[in-house]
C-alpha cells in the first residue's frame, strides 16, 4: 500500500466500481435489456437475434455500440439515450464512500465506456456528484472504448495529468493493461463475472481489492 502514498490523481471506472458488484446486475441488467430492445427495433430482428448480436459485438469490439456503429451505422447518441433510460430508485446514497472521497487529498476523475448522462444519474443517486474534478465518457472517446490505448491517451490529455502520479481503478481487469503501460498504478476490484475477471492474474494489476471505500480509507490513513 505504501506505493499508493502521495498519488495525485485517482481515476475511477463507473459501473461496478463506484457502486458495488452487488448492484451491477440490477443496473447493467436494465441497460443490457434496453440494448437488446434497441437492436431488435432498429435492425428489425427478433429479441433472440438482437441479444446474440449484442453479445457478439461486445466480445469482438469491447462495446456493443462499437459493433453497431461499424456494421450498421447506428446513431450512437440515439443508442446511448435509449439504453441509459433506467430506474435507479433502489440505488441509495453511499455515505461511507462520500466521506472517504472527501478526505482524499487528490484529484478525482471518472472514465467510463458509458455516457455522461449515465455518469450523472449514477453519481447523483450515490450522493457524490459534487466530488469529481472531471469525467471522460464514450462520446469524448469518439466512441472508441476501453481498452483502446488511444482513448486512455485522450483522457490523460483532457485531464492534463501525469500518468506516473495517477492510479486507475476498474472492475474489468483487462481495462487496466493500457493504464499500466502508460505508467499508472492499477487497482482491480475483485469479482467473479467472466468478463470482469478475465486476465486478472496478469502482472499489469498492482493491487486487488474487495471494496472501494475500504481501499480509500487505507489510502487516507497512509496520507
How would you explain this protein's 3D organization?
With 223 residues, this protein is an alpha/beta fold. It is built from ten helices and six strands, in the order βαααααβαβαβαβαβα. A six-stranded parallel beta sheet has the order 3-2-1-4-5-6, with helices on both faces. Helix 1 crosses helix 2 and helix 5 packs parallel to helix 10 (212-222). The protein is globular, with a radius of gyration of 17 Å. The termini are close together.
The largest beta-sheet arranges its strands as: 3-2-1-4-5-6
The SS-based structural class is alpha/beta
| Overall mean pLDDT | 96
The total strand number stands at 6
Could you tell me the strand content as a percent range?
5-15%
What oligomeric state best describes the polypeptide chains here? single chain
Helix content: 40-55%
Task: Specify Rg, calculated over alpha carbons.
Answer: 17 Å
Describe the global form: globular
Give the SSE string: EHHHHHEHEHEHEHEH
Uncertain residue ranges: none
The largest sheet, given as strand count, sense and whether it forms a barrel, is: 6 strands, parallel
Query: First CA to last CA: what distance?
Result: 11 Å
Structure annotation, total helices: 10
Summarize the structure.
This protein is an alpha/beta fold. The protein contains ten helices and six strands; from the N terminus they run βαααααβαβαβαβαβα. Strands 3-2-1-4-5-6 form a six-stranded parallel sheet, with helices on both faces.
Amino acid at each position: 500500500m505504501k506505493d499508493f502514498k502521495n498519488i495525485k490523481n485517482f481515476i475511477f471506472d463507473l459501473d461496478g466500481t463506484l457502486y458495488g458488484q452487488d448492484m451491477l446486475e440490477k443496473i447493467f441488467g436494465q441497460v443490457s435489456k434496453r440494448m437488446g430492445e434497441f437492436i431488435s427495433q432498429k435492425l428489425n430482428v427478433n429479441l433472440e437475434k438482437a441479444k446474440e448480436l449484442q453479445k457478439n459485438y461486445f466480445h469482438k469490439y469491447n462495446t456493443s455500440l462499437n459493433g453497431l456503429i461499424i456494421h450498421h451505422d447506428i446513431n450512437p447518441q440515439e443508442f446511448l439515450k435509449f439504453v441509459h433510460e433506467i430506474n435507479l430508485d433502489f440505488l441509495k446514497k453511499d455515505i461511507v464512500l462520500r466521506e472517504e472521497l472527501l478526505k482524499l487529498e487528490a484529484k478525482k476523475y471518472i472514465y467510463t465506456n458509458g455516457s455522461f448522462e449515465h455518469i450523472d444519474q449514477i453519481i447523483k443517486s450515490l450522493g457524490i456528484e459534487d466530488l469529481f474534478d472531471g469525467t471522460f465518457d464514450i462520446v469524448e472517446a469518439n466512441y472508441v472504448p476501453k481498452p483502446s490505448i488511444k482513448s486512455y491517451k485522450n483522457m490523460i490529455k483532457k485531464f492534463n495529468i501525469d500518468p506516473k502520479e495517477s492510479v486507475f481503478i476498474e472492475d474489468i481487469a483487462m481495462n487496466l493493461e493500457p493504464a499500466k503501460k502508460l505508467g499508472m498504478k492499477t487497482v482491480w476490484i475483485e469479482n467473479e463475472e467472466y468478463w470482469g475477471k478475465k486476465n486478472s492474474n496478469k502482472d499489469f494489476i498492482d493491487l486487488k481489492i474487495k471494496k472501494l471505500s475500504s481501499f480509500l480509507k487505507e489510502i487516507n490513513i497512509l496520507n
